[in-house]
C-alpha cells in the first residue's frame, strides 16, 4: 500500500507542460500564455476625449462664471473614428465625442452638460482645469511595456488587453487532449434504460464532463468490453490523438480486470493500492513513443470521481501550464459524528454550507463508493487523515471544494 501523497508525487513528477503552439486569440481562451507579451503600441494609442463635449484651451475659460459666461466659436466637429490631424486655435473650441482624437493645442474638454450645447457658438459658465476629461496617450500601457507574462491564463479580460495592443495570434500551452475509455462488459451507452445486469456508462460521461470543466479537450471513446485484445487495440489507436488517457474499471482484484491484466506487463505502468477510501486501486504510467500519461481509475463511480479530483486534475493542470491546485481547501466544522477507516485517507462526500460564523460540513448521504446520489448532492470532499478513525461533531475538517458553497438558510 502506498500513500496518496506518494502516488500523487509520482504523477506530478512524470507529467510535463505541453509544448507551445500558436492560436488565434479567441481560440486561446482558457489556455495559458507560453511567452511574455510586450506591447509595441501605447494605450490609449492617441490623446482622446473622455466625454462628449467641447475641446478647449482651459486658459480661455479661466474667468468663466454664472455671472460672466464665456462664449467661444465652434470650429468644427470631431467624431470617434476621425483620423484627420486637427489643430485648435486659441480662443476657439471644437465639438468632440467620447474617444475622438483631441485636436492639437486643446488641453481640456468641457462636457456638453456644462454648456448650452451650441453648434456654431458655445457658452460655458464655469472654468475647466487643464487635462480635465482628456485621456493621455500611453497612460494605461506604454509602448514597450510587458503587458502579460508567460503562465497567465487567458480569460475575457486578458483577451481584451491582448486584442487592444494588436495581438492576432498568441503562443500558448495548448489544452491537453484527454481520451476517456470506459471498460466493462456490463456497460451500455448513455441514453438507454439499463436492463437486468446492465449499467449505464455514467463514468464515461462524468469524466468527459470533468475534463471539459477543467478546460481541457475530452474525447470520449465509449464502452470497451472486458477483452484484452479489444482493450489493447483501442488504447493503441487512441494514443495517437491523446495527450493523456483516462480509463475506468478493470483495475481491481477480479477475474475480468482487463485493464490491469493488459497493462501490468508494461514496464512504464504501475498498479498500486493507495491508502484512501474510496479509490484504493490505482494505476499510472506512460505509454507509446510520446510517453503519454495514462491514468487507470477504478470503476466505482465515486472512486473514479475522487481519483480524478485528487490525481488527474492536478496533472492535467500542470500539462496545461497551470498551477497544480487552483482552489484552496475550505475549513469546515463537522455537523455530526461519522467513522473513518484506519490507515486510509477518507474522502467523505459532504455538503458545505456557510452561515455568518463559518462553514459546516454535513455528510451528503450514502457513502458507498457506488453511490452517485450522494456524489451529485455533495459540494465538497472532506479529507479525513489516515490516522483518524472517528469524526466528531464540532471537529474542524479540511475540505476539497467540488462546487459552490451553499448559504445556510
Ligand atoms: P470494476 O472497477 O471494473 O471492478 O467496477 C467496479 C464497479 O464499478 C462495478 O459495479 C461496475 O459496474 C462499476 N462501473 C465500472 N465502470 C463503470 C462505468 N463506466 N460507469 C458506471 N459504473 C461503472
Ligand atoms: Mg469491470
Mean pLDDT across residues? 97
User: Counting H and I runs of at least 4 residues, what is the number of helices?
Assistant: 7
Q: Give me the side-by-side strand order of the main sheet.
A: 16-13-17-21-20-18
Which structural class matches the secondary elements? alpha/beta
Number of strands: 29
> Sheet with the most strands?
6 strands, mixed
Ligand kinds = adenosine monophosphate, magnesium ion
Name a few traits of the molecule.
single chain, 409 residues, alpha/beta, six-stranded mixed beta sheet, five-stranded mixed beta sheet, elongated, binds adenosine monophosphate, binds magnesium ion
What does this structure look like?
The structure is a single chain. The chain has 409 residues and is an alpha/beta fold. The protein is 18% helix and 31% strand. The protein contains 7 helices and 29 strands. It has helices at residues 4-14, 156-164, 202-213, 228-238, 258-263, 301-319, 372-377, and strands at 21-24, 32-33, 37-38, 48-49, 53-56, 70-78, 93-96, 108-111, 121-124, 134-135, 146-148, 169-173, 177-183, 187-188, 199-200, 217-224, 244-248, 269-273, 276-277, 281-287, 292-297, 330-334, 338-339, 345-355, 358-363, 380-384, 390-391, 396-401, 406-407. The strands form 8 sheets. The protein has a 6-stranded mixed β-sheet, with helices on both faces. A 5-stranded mixed β-sheet has the order 8-5-7-6-9, with no helix packed on it. Strand 20 (281-287) and strand 21 (292-297) form a beta hairpin. Helix 3 (202-213) packs parallel to helix 6 (301-319). The model has no long low-confidence stretch (mean pLDDT 97). The chain binds adenosine monophosphate (AMP) and magnesium ion (MG). Magnesium ion (MG) binds at residues 184, 249-250, 299. Magnesium ion binds at residues 184, 249-250, 299.
Amino acid at each position: 500500500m502506498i500513500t496518496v501523497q506518494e502516488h500523487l508525487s509520482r504523477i506530478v513528477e512524470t507529467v510535463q507542460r505541453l509544448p507551445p503552439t500558436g492560436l488565434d486569440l479567441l481560440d486561446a481562451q482558457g489556455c495559458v500564455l507560453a511567452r511574455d507579451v510586450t506591447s509595441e503600441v501605447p494605450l490609449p494609442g492617441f490623446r482622446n476625449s473622455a466625454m462628449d463635449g467641447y475641446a478647449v484651451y482651459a486658459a480661455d475659460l479661466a474667468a468663466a462664471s454664472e455671472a460672466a459666461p464665456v462664449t467661444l466659436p465652434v470650429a468644427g466637429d470631431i467624431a470617434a473614428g476621425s483620423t484627420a490631424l486637427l489643430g485648435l486655435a486659441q480662443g476657439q473650441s471644437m465639438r468632440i465625442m467620447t474617444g475622438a482624437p483631441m485636436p492639437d493645442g486643446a488641453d481640456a474638454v468641457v462636457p456638453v452638460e456644462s454648456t448650452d450645447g451650441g453648434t456654431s457658438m458655445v457658452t460655458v459658465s464655469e472654468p475647466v482645469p487643464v487635462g480635465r476629461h482628456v485621456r493621455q496617450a500611453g497612460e494605461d500601457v506604454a509602448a514597450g511595456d510587458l503587458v502579460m507574462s508567460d503562465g497567465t491564463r487567458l480569460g475575457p479580460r486578458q483577451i481584451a488587453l491582448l486584442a487592444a495592443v494588436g495581438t492576432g495570434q498568441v503562443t500558448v500551452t495548448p489544452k491537453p487532449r484527454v481520451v476517456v475509455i470506459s471498460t466493462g462488459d456490463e456497460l451500455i451507452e448513455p441514453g438507454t434504460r439499463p436492463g437486468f445486469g446492465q449499467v449505464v456508462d455514467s463514468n464515461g460521461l462524468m469524466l468527459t464532463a470533468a475534463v471539459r470543466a477543467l478546460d481541457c479537450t475530452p474525447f470520449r471513446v465509449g464502452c470497451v468490453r472486458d477483452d484484452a485484445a479489444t482493450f489493447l487495440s483501442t488504447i493503441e489507436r487512441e494514443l495517437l490523438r491523446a495527450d493523456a488517457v483516462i480509463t475506468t474499471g478493470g483495475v481491481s482484484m477480479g477475474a475480468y480486470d482487463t485493464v490491469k491484466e493488459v497493462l501490468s506487463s508494461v514496464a512504464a505502468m504501475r498498479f498500486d493500492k493507495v491508502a484512501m477510501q474510496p479509490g484504493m486501486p490505482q494505476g499510472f504510467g506512460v505509454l507509446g513513443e510520446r510517453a503519454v500519461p495514462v491514468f487507470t481509475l477504478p470503476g466505482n463511480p465515486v472512486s473514479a470521481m475522487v481519483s480524478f479530483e485528487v490525481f488527474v486534475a492536478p496533472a492535467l493542470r500542470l500539462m496545461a501550464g497551470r498551477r497544480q491546485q487552483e482552489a484552496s481547501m475550505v475549513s469546515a466544522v463537522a455537523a455530526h459524528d461519522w467513522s473513518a477507516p484506519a490507515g486510509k485517507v477518507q474522502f467523505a462526500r459532504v455538503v458545505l454550507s456557510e452561515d455568518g460564523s463559518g462553514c459546516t460540513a454535513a455528510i451528503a448521504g450514502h457513502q458507498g463508493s457506488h453511490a452517485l446520489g450522494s456524489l451529485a448532492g455533495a459540494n465538497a470532499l472532506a479529507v479525513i487523515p489516515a490516522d483518524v478513525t472517528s469524526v466528531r461533531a464540532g471537529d474542524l475538517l479540511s475540505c476539497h471544494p467540488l462546487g459552490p458553497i451553499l448559504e445556510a438558510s
